[in-house]
Amino acid sequence: MQRLDRLRQLLKEEQLEALYVTDLLNVRYLTGFTGSAGAVLVTHDEAYFITDFRYVTQANKEVTSAKVVIHQQGVDQEVQKLIEQDQIRTLGIEANQMNVSQYLKIQKLFDLDIKPTDALIEKLRQVKDQEEIAIIRQACEITDLAFEHILNFVKAGVTELQVANELESFLKNKGASSMSFDTIVASGERSAMPHGVASEKVIENGDMVTIDFGCYYKGYSSDMTRTFAVGSVSDQLREIYEIVLEAHNRVIAGTRAGMTGQEVDALARDYITEKGYGQYFGHSTGHGLGLDVHEMPAVSSRSETVMVENMVITDEPGIYLPGIGGVRIEDDLIIKENGVESINSSPKELIILTEGEA
Ligand code: GLY
Ligand code: MN
User: Fold this and answer.
1) Cα angle at 211 between 209 and 213, to 5 degrees?
2) How does pLDDT run across 310-329, given as a tens digit for each residue?
3) How far is the CA of 329 from the centre of ligand 2 (A)?
4) Which-ligand-closest: CA of 211?
5) If you placed Cys at 326, which of 243, 290, 320, 349 could pair as Cys (CB 3.0 to 4.6 Å)?
6) How confident is the model over 41-69, as pLDDT tens digits?
């Protein structure tokens, strides 16, 4: 079923005559529009894509599933006209996306019943089609190549920022449009910071280095983490590396369609807890991945979402020891009926780069 038809089915269930789609990723998902300003009004019989003068050419080229409307006085004003024209009486809005002042504005402007909706399109986006999966695979492929490249670049004496810049320019040269989040390069004690974005710190011999990075490629994101050692690292760091790797592998071996996010999370969490490091693993095991780098489904201890074939999730357990260092290993996985496929091919055995000159 086409995306708009699947959405219309949900509108029926929610007893809505139309949905005002203002989240740009959702706009892209429904229409293919890749620009940075536009909205969609979906009714049971029509779909309108509303944008401004700057995007006339692009919209006419990219948007085939909706009527293109160029507004003169503002998107909301144009939507108000369409609502009147099509005699819409109940309109859904994307509650997660709209801020309070936008809401107050349309409340004044629109003369109809406005109902907040909860992530309707985000729920559709969870399950990828084959075209989306093919693009995510390509995004992961260049991500793997970037990791291979960076292993030849990292040595004692370079800064985390130099590593991030090298990684980012490599990815852009391979076709990435941007990074999917600020590149994390966390070395030494900083590797105990789960989101230690690259800093001016110089990488030293004896450091564990965690690199967590991803890119946008043709609109879709990748997200991968590897941790490796520069020179010899302590026994404790090696121990937690092996525990995190086993936890990560347990998710790959044990996940399949039909499990809840909570059950997937437990595959990693229970093992890390059993090994005595539960309190040092304070984030979710994973998250959905697609047009957004963090999207539904959640793969956390609270997630009751059931895994469905062709969802794409991350598998990223970690252990972080303050003042000592940390380890995280992350792959992107496609959910299959009887298991998962990991899309990344970068090695996971502990890599120890030979000591360089500091
Ligand atoms: N890779 C960063 C994160 O998933 O939070
Ligand atoms: Mn991630």
Assistant:
1) 175
2) 999 999 999 999 999 999 99
3) 10
4) 1
5) 320
6) 999 999 999 999 999 999 999 999 999 99
